[in-house]
Amino acid sequence: MQCVYSTCSLHIQRKLMFSQGAIVEVTSTSEVSEAVQFARKHHINFVTEAGGHSTTGSSATHGGLVISLTKMRRVLTDPASKTVCVQGGAIWDDVNESTAAYGLAVVGSTASNTGVAGPTLGGGFGWLTGRYGLISDNLLSVRMVLADGTIVEASDENHQDLFWAVRGAGQAFGIVTELVFRAYDLAGPVYGGTLIFTVDRLPGILEFANRFDEQQDEDSGFFFGLAAPSAADRTAILVLPFYNGSEEKAEEFFAPLISLGPSINKTSMMSYKELNRIANVDPVPEGRKCFTGTKVSMPLDRHLLCDLWEHFDAIMEKYPRSKHSVLMFELIPYEKTISVPIDATACADRGRYYNVALLLCWYDPEHDGTMHTYMRALLSRIKNSACYAGQKENVQANANFAGHEIGATYLFRDNLPRLQALKRKYDPHNIFSKWHNLISHTEKQSGLQC
């Protein structure tokens, strides 16, 4: 166990640098337990860093202790049982490298340089979700350290109530040091890459998106949104297609899209691990950034997309150094996900809707407030549209995308009371509250404030 003092970090969603008092680089579950007990004994505020790609600020602290799992990245694939054991500090690229050697794959994030633990415990999704469900639905067991330093195993056989909670709200219950996943055969190549379209192709892209929703092909995926290919370009339409099948089937499926005439076409058959590197974002790039998300249902409205393009493009024109920003509609077939009852796990993010992700990037600290205002304005346009899906019983955002402006009620819905009861059992002093505070008495009751 190694301590590093007086260090700083910049997490993807944060506008400001965070100065922590010390980082403890642990190498085993027992060391994690020791670090937790030490922090509790000396009344030191602490947070956990797993893969180091937090989007909610849960792994950053002002002056406190960071328990870093980044040296715990071992991955063991068992081809006989088709299971994969992953340490809590691993990233998805570690997993994909290990499983590929056996012609296997797990449901993982769509970016391979992000951590494994965070997306899994928050009920994340990936390119294989259409066929196999959420990442958390493919989790078989975890080893974790509770708030008092106790080490426990949670699965369908042990601590079943805790295992229910960690599949969707795991960051609120302890530090997960080991995860075991179900793996699937995936020896052949898949179809993927990038397409760039000029904005005049937007009506045709929306027509394809709405048809995609109707098809619900479990082997497909379709991300599209707004981005600037370079600082010299106007905002274009970026598309990330996916198909798990033959090249012939993939080309047939995406033929209506390709026929629109992309200005750039970098699609091909590739390995699954290559596919998952396409959307990689440097977890600590130069500059400042803010990340958030929301939900939409189909059909998407052309007027909404044109309005979003105009305002997004205006921001990019006014702040040219912000052109690493993206606004993406992430379409993954949902029939497999909604086949699991909402109360089967803590993850309530199961509905006939899709994720929207917004990442704004900039450099000047003086623009912090302005960019945050832009972020809210863009989300407000979606929320006030007919395709907004965060009403009534639906969640307002994926828990891994949501900032603290969205209260736990709007992320966990009817599962929240049971989560709160389990918090009182496993974390009665609410030590793990940095991700989403499940028992906050000051939670906003109006949801996302735009």
UniProtKB/TrEMBL annotation:
Cofactor: FAD
One Pfam family, short name: FAD_binding_4
MF terms (GO), sorted A to Z: FAD binding; oxidoreductase activity
The FAD-binding PCMH-type domain, residue ranges: 16-186
Matching InterPro entries: BBE, FAD-bd_PCMH, FAD-bd_PCMH-like_sf, FAD-bd_PCMH_sub1, FAD-bd_PCMH_sub2, FAD-linked_Oxase-like_C, FAD-linked_Oxidoreductase, Oxid_FAD_bind_N
Alphabetically ordered keywords of this record: FAD, Flavoprotein, Oxidoreductase
Family of this protein: Belongs to the oxygen-dependent FAD-linked oxidoreductase family.
Protein name: FAD-binding PCMH-type domain-containing protein
Organism: Aspergillus hiratsukae
Lineage: Eukaryota, Fungi, Dikarya, Ascomycota, Pezizomycotina
